[in-house]
Design brief:
Length: 193
C-alpha cells in the first residue's frame, strides 16, 4: 500500500493571525506552516521568570513582555514568539490599540528578545541558527540566547547589518547595551529557586 504524504496547509500572515482552534496551543509560523510550540519545562519557565523580574528593575515594566509575536523574514510568512521581549518605545507605541500583540515587519523592532533554549537538537538549531539570522534581519538590537544545558548566555548585538556574539559563563556579569546596569551573573540566572 502506497501512502501519499500530507502536504501541510500554507498560511499567510493574515490567516495565521486569524487562526483559532479554540484551545490554548501555541504556534509559531515557519515558512507559512503552523509549528506547535512544545510546553516549556519548569526550569525554562523559572529562568524566563527570573529574567523578567530582573529586567523590570532596569526598564519600565510595561516594556518587558512575554507572548508578543515577531514577524520575521522567510520564504513564506514566518512569526516567532520569543520567551521574553523588551520593547523599544517605538515598538510599544506601534501596538497601541492593537487587538493582537504581533509586531509585523512594517512595525519598529523591539529592543531585545530572549530565547531560553529547550532540550533537543532541533530547538538548539532553531535558537542558535535560524532565529539568530531572522532577528538580525529585523535589526533587533540584542538577542539573548540563554542555554541551561551549556550554562551560558550568548548576547548577540546588532552591529552594521549583522550580529556580533559574546558568550558569558560562570560568574561573568552580562554586558548589555539595552540594560546597561545589569548586575546578574550567568550562574545567578541558572540558580534553582
Amino acid at each position: 500500500m502506497v501512502t501519499t504524504p500530507i502536504t501541510p496547509q500554507i498560511f499567510t500572515l493574515e490567516e495565521y493571525l486569524a487562526y483559532d482552534e479554540g484551545i490554548d496551543t501555541r504556534y509559531e509560523l515557519e515558512d507559512g506552516v503552523l509549528v506547535e510550540m512544545p510546553t516549556e519545562s519548569p526550569e525554562n519557565i523559572n529562568i524566563a521568570r527570573r529574567l523578567l523580574l530582573e529586567f523590570i528593575k532596569y526598564v519600565a515594566a510595561e516594556l518587558v513582555v512575554w507572548g508578543t509575536e515577531v514577524e520575521v523574514s522567510g520564504r513564506q510568512a514566518k512569526v516567532r514568539i520569543p520567551d521574553l521581549l523588551v520593547h523599544s518605545p517605538a515598538s510599544l507605541a506601534a501596538l497601541a490599540g492593537a487587538t493582537r500583540s504581533t509586531l509585523t515587519q512594517f512595525m519598529p523592532p523591539p529592543a531585545l528578545v530572549v530565547e531560553v533554549v529547550s532540550l533537543g537538537e532541533q530547538n538548539r538549531n532553531r535558537d542558535y541558527r535560524y532565529k539568530h539570522t531572522e532577528y538580525a534581519v529585523r535589526e533587533i538590537a540584542e538577542y539573548w540566547i540563554v542555554d541551561p544545558e551549556l550554562q551560558q548566555v550568548t548576547i548577540c548585538k546588532w552591529l552594521e547589518g549583522k550580529y556580533e556574539d559574546t558568550i558569558f559563563i560562570g560568574e561573568q556579569i552580562i554586558a548589555s547595551e539595552i540594560i546597561p546596569n545589569w548586575q546578574l551573573t550567568v550562574n545567578q540566572i541558572f540558580q534553582k529557586f
